[in-house]
Write a structure and sequence with these properties.
Layout lengths: L10 H18 L15 E2 L10 E6 L4 E3 L2 E2 L2 H9 L7 E6 L5 H13 L5 E4 L1 E2 L6
Parallel strand pairs: 1-7, 2-5, 5-6
Antiparallel strand pairs: 2-3, 3-4
């Protein structure tokens, strides 16, 4: 009598298929680049986080620098760009370093208000609760 060999699935083609799928998903996925240019030390806050799903405008402000959508600009350039925005309801995400003087913050807020861009969100880092 002949011995029957157990049926074992061949693993090589399965591994090949898995690697091809992994490569396919990596190549076809879109990696979102955050539009951040400045290294900021954000103030802490215990406010809840809001989700903004629409296309947004990012402004970053440090003591000596200003960035719009990840590129350093001057206040004059920022004003030129903001006055051309047609959708006044678009979300404006403002990241401000905690060391920035109030006068500099007001300059940026004045430009936003001048062109009716009032859908504003100030970004902070999450406050760590010391009581726990």
């Amino acid at each position: 009598m002949r011995r029957r060999e157990p049926l074992v699935p061949e693993m090589t083609p399965l591994i090949d298929v898995v690697f091809i799928l992994i490569i396919f998903f990596i190549v076809t996925s879109i990696f979102k680049k955050e539009e951040l240019a400045l290294l900021l030390n954000l103030p802490s806050s215990s406010a809840k986080e809001l989700d903004i799903e629409e296309e947004q405008i990012t402004i970053e402000l440090s003591e000596k620098q200003l960035a719009f959508r990840g590129e350093e600009v001057t206040l004059e350039v920022l004003e030129d760009v903001l006055k051309n925005i047609e959708d006044k309801k678009r979300a404006i995400i403002v990241r401000i370093d905690e060391e920035v003087i109030y006068k500099r913050i007001v300059q940026v807020l004045d430009i936003l208000q001048k062109y009716g861009l009032n859908n504003l969100a100030l970004v902070t880092k999450k406050k760590i609760d010391d009581s726990e």
